[in-house]
Amino acid sequence: MTRWGEPFRESDALATAEVVDQAQIAIVVIDRFSLLRYWNPYARELFGFVDGRDYVGMSLLDIGIHESDREHASQLARRVLRGEPWEGTFAVLKGDATWIHVRAQAVPMLDEAGEVDGIALIAREALRSGRVEEQYGLLERIGSRLAGSLELDSTVKGVAGILVPQFADHCFIDLYDHERLVRQVSVHAEGWEPPPRTWYEVGDEVRYPERHFVTQSLRRLETVVSSEHLYESSPNDRSDRVSRQVGVTSAIAAPLRARGEVLGVLTLALSGLSPRQKSSYGGFDRDLVGAIASRVALAIDNARLYEEERGTALAFQKSLLPSDFPTLDGLTLAHRYLPAGPINGRGLQAQVGGDFYDAIPLSAGRVGLVIGDVEGRGPHAAAVMGQLRAALRAFAQADREPADILRELDEWVRRLGIPDGNGGVWIPSVSCLYMVYDAWSRELSYANAGHAPPLLVTSDSVETLDLEVTDRMLGVRAKGGSGEDIVYHQADLRLPIGATLVMYTDGLVDRRPVGGEPDPEGALVRLKERVSEVADKDVEQIAEAAVYSVPGELEDDTALLVVRTHSEELALREGWFPSEASTVGAARHLAADTFKEWGVDRDQAELACLLVSEIVTNVVIHATPHPVHREFTGAGVLDSESPLSSNGGGADEFDEDWSDLLEAVAEEDESSEDPAEKEFLLRLRRGANAIWVEVFDHDLRLPRIRSAAADDEGGRGLYLVEQLASRWGSRPTPDGKAVWFEMPMHADGSEGTDGDAREEPERAAER
User: Fold this and answer.
1) What SS3 string covers 618-680?
2) What does DSSP assign to residue 7?
3) How many CB atoms are closer than 10 A to CB 558?
4) Of 379, 409, 395, which Cα lies nearest the Cα of 475?
5) By C-alpha distance, which of 687, 692, 683, 696 is closest to 742?
6) Are 558 and 511 in contact (CB under 8 A)?
7) Domain named PPM-type phosphatase: which ranges (predicted)?
8) Interatomic CA distance for residues 84 and 101, integer angstroms
C-alpha cells in the first residue's frame, strides 16, 4: 500500500469481492422473481440473518420486512423491474426480534442484451448519521406526545406544535373524510398566518394539482422531498404569490398510512420565517419525516378508533338515560351525566357505567325522583342500569309505594347476575334512592337502598338532607342469609318552601386530584361551598357549578339531578262527604264552584264535573268502611260479605253493573246503624295547565272497566272517564284506594272532545 496521496500501484489494487465484503453498507442482489441471490456480510448483520440458515432462493419479503411494509416492498420490485430506480425506507424485524428502519436504494441490473435481469439493493440503517442523531430528541418527544393522547385533535395539534419551529416553519396535516381530503392542522412559525383565501385553512377541502409533490407522495405512497420547481404546481395564483413572499425553499410530504389504509398526508416546509443553518431538506430529513409519519398515522388511526368507540359508548349510555323531562307542576329540573375518562389505557371500559337518574310523572301531579349507581363499569353495568331503570319506571307508574318498589328491584337485580368463572354468580350491588314528591303538600315519601343523601339547599344554608331510613343496597344479601332478612323501610318528610335538592352519585365526590388520593369528605365540603355560592341562581347554573366543584380526574361516571320546588300556580281544595246518594250532587257543586274560581274553561269545567259525578257515584255504590277479607276455598277465592253484596257473601267483584243504581245505596244507608262510617274524600288540584280530581275511599278493591251491553242501564261510567280524561287511574292507599283523572284547563289542549264524544256525556248526564 502506498502512502497517502501517492497513486495506487497495480499490485495494491483490491479485488471487487474484497471491497464488497468490507463495505459498511448492505448489498443484496435479487433476481427477476424477487428471490435472493447474493448478500454481503454487512447485509447479514443489518437484516439479522440467522447463522447457519441458507437464504438463497428465499423471497425478498422473507428477510424480515415488517408486515406493514410488505406492500411497499412489492411496489419496489415492480417499479425497478420496469427499469426505474427506487429509494425508500422499510421497517425490518431482525432475527433477534428487534426492529429497525432501513433506508434502501434499488437499481435495475441489466444483462448483455440490455434487459432487466434483477435488482441490486443497497441499504443502511436509517437515522444513523451524526446529522440525524441530533433529531433523536425530536423523535422521542413526538413519541411521548403520541403515547399520551387518544383524542384526534390534541394528537395532530401536539405533533405540529413539536415540529414547528424546531424542524419546519410550516406544518400541514390533511386527512381523508371519505373521498375528500380535508385540512385538519395548519401551524406556522413566529405566529405567522397566511392571508385569507390563499393557502387552505383548517376545515377546507384540499385539492392538489396533478403534478404537485403532495399528489406524487400520495400516489407513490412514499415520502417526497421537493426543493426545486416548488412554485410550478401551486394550487392557485394566490397560493403561489404567498409562497414566494414568505420564501418557501423546501418541502417534504409523507403519506399517513396505517393498517394498510392511507389516512392522509403530512407536509412540512422551510421558509424565511425563522433563521436556520439549512434552507433545504435532504435524504436524512426524509428518513426522519417518514419515521414520524408512520408513528403519527398509527396514533391517528388509534385516536379515530377510540373516538368511534367513545361515541358508540356514549350513545349507548345516553339512550338509556332520559334526555329531557316533561313540564312538571311545582318542580324545575336540571340534570347532568359525565362519563368517566380513560384511565391507565382503558378507554371504553372506563367510560360507560351504571349511574342513572329519572323524574317520573305519577298520578295527580305527583313526581317520582330517582338517583342510583350500579356497581362496576363497562357495557354490562350500563345494560343492568338500563333494565333496572325501565323496571323502576314501570313499578313507579303503577303507583307502588317506594319501599315496595325497592323490594321488587332487589329481586330484579338478582336476576341480572352473570357467571363469575368460579361456578358462582356475580350479582352487582346497586345503590338507589327513590322519592315521591307531592308539590301541593311539599311532602316527600322515600325509600333508600344505600345511596348518599342529597343536598338540601335553602335560602339560608346548604346541608345534607337528613334521611331517617337507609337500608342495604340492592342485590346485597347478609352473609348466609336467604333473602328474607332484606326489609326496605319507608319514611316521610316535608320540604321547606322553595327548597332545592341536589341528588348525585359518588363519582362526583370520589375524583382523584392530580398526584393525590380521593378525599370524599373534603370533596363534599367543596361541593357544599360551591353550591352555596350559586344557591340563588337557576337550576342549570347550580348543576353546572356542582359538576365542576370538585377538581380531579373522572375515574367514575357521574349522574346529577337538581330539583327546585315552587308553588306558583298550584291550588288545592278538598272535602269529606258521607257515602250517600244525596252527596253526589254536593260533590259536583264543590267541583263546579272550584273550577269556576280557578278560571277553568267553561266546557272543560262542565266535562270535568260530569266525570266527578261518575267516579263519586262509583264510590257511593261500592265503597265500604270495612276491610275486605279474602278466603281461599275449593270453589276459588271468595271475598267477605260487604254491605252491598247482593248474593249474601259470595265472590264480590268490583264492576259497574248496578241495576238499582243509587236507590240501593239509599236503602243501605237507611238500614245502616252508623252511616257516618261510610265517607269519601274529594280532592281537587290545579297545576299550571291541568287539573286533577282524586276520590279516596276505604274500599281496597281497585276499579276496572267493563263492557256494557246495549240494553244495560249502567256500566259506562269508567269508560267515559277513560275516553274523556287526559289520563286516569287508581292506586292503593294505606287504608283504601284513590281513583283519579286528569284534564287540561283549556279545551284546545284536551283530547276526545269532538262531536261524538260530547254527545256521549250528554246521554250519560240524562242517565
Assistant:
1) HHHHHCCCCCCCEEEECCEEEECCCCCCCCCCCCCCCCCCCCCCHHHHHHHHHHCCCHHHCEE
2) P
3) 24
4) 409
5) 692
6) no
7) 338-565
8) 23
Q: How far is the C-alpha of 383 from the C-alpha of 381, rounded, in Å?
A: 5
Q: Are 353 and 382 in contact (CB under 8 A)?
A: yes
Measured from the Cβ of residue 69, the count of other Cβ atoms closer than 10 Å reads 21
At 229, the pLDDT band (50, 70, 90 cuts) reads: low
Distance from C-alpha of 294 to C-alpha of 265, rounded to nearest angstrom = 11
C-alpha cell at position 470: 337507609
pTM of the model: 0.63
Count the alpha carbons within 13 Å of 743 in the hemisphere toward its beta carbon. Answer: 29
Per DSSP, helices labelled H in 249-328 are 283-319
**Closest listed residue to residue 301, CA positions, set 145, 172, 176:** 176
State the Cα–Cα distance between residues 609 and 202, nearest whole angstrom. Answer: 66
Three-state SS across 485-531?
CCCCCCEEEECCCCCEEEEECHHHCCCECCCCCCCHHHHHHHHHHHH
Cell of 138: 425530536
Grid coordinates representing 354 are 351504571
* Start-to-end CA span in the chain (Å): 133
Of 465, 459, 471, which is closest to residue 437 (Cα–Cα)?
465
Give tens-digit pLDDT for 517-570. 888 899 999 999 999 999 999 999 999 999 989 888 777 889 999 999 998 889
C-beta separation of 40 from 27 below 8 A: yes
Cα–Cα distance list, 420 to 354, 426, 428, 482 (Å) = 19, 5, 11, 20
Cell numbers for 762, please give them: 250528554
pLDDT tens, residue by residue, 382-401: 888 888 999 999 999 888 89
CA distance 297 to 293: 6
How many other β-carbons are positioned within 10 Å of the β-carbon of residue 720? 22
* Unique residue bearing C-alpha cell 352473609: 479
Which residue, chain included where needed, has cell 378507554? Answer: 347
Cα gap 117→85, rounded to integer Å: 14
Least confident of 106-115, 153-162, 475-484: 475-484
Identify which of 152, 200, 170 has the alpha carbon closest to the alpha carbon of residue 296.
Answer: 152
- If phi over 0 gives left and psi between -120 and 50 gives alpha, with beta otherwise, what is residue 752? left
Top mean pLDDT of 63-72, 151-160, 649-658 is at 151-160
Q: What are phi and psi of 212, to 5 degrees?
A: -70, 145
Largest separation between any pair of C-alpha atoms in the chain: 146
Burial-class residue 116 by CB neighbours within 10 Å (0-12, 13-18, 19+): middle
Residue type, 30: I
Tell me how far apart the alpha carbons of residues 380 and 346 are, in angstroms, rounded to a whole number: 16
Residue 43 phi/psi, 5-degree rounding, is -65, -40
Q: Which of 12-21, 259-268, 574-583, 598-607 has the lowest mean pLDDT?
A: 12-21
Mean pLDDT on 334-353 = 66
